[in-house]
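[Meeting: bench + compute handoff]

Bench side (C.D.) handed over the final construct sequence. Compute side (W.E.) agreed to return the predicted structure before the next meeting so the bench team could plan truncations. Sequence as handed over:
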Amino acid sequence: MSPPVAGEPFAMDPSAFPAASPALLHLLAALTRDEDDTGPFERLQGQRLMLLAVCALLDSLADACQPLQQRMAASLASYLQTDFPAMIAEEEDGLLPLLRARLLLGDDFDQVLRQMDEEHRLDRRQAALLAADCEALAGGLLPDEAAVLFSACRAFAEQQRRHLAWEDATVLPLARSRLTAADLAQWNRRARARRKPRTAAPGA
């Protein structure tokens, strides 16, 4: 199977993980299920579980043999360029505007939301840099260069695990308790609008 193309949605490449069973690949497909009948919290949870799985792969990249490293790096770069920013967009364009509208006087949540915005900004920048480095690894890197990348992969993975745990303890419980059925329907409409391919302009 050919390496992922930059900008294409992430898909698990079985050749990158030859020990993966069909059951494991089915599990990964379940995490990325994105259909019209999927609830927004269910969809977001699947994205977050996929990120945790990717973090484990980032941690283990240094331990793989070189051919496997190169195949893994191509898939990881694709994820960081597509699915990772899509998960952040799910929160920033779907969840957070609705949650802000449901905040009450005395919630004292402004600092939490500012921190979330700042961490997302840093996450996007770091993911873009790491994706470029993973693409370089897929093409072959010198041992010293690869060692720097492996350290960056582990640092990014740990940062993401801390961020997810923080959101689980602060943002998501409040969102689940405050968002209404109408809010969830609106969130789903926004998600469908983001996924809908843009139609080409007449004469393009």
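W.E. noted at the follow-up: The CA atoms of residues 88 and 120 lie 7 Å apart. C.D. will use this when planning the next construct.
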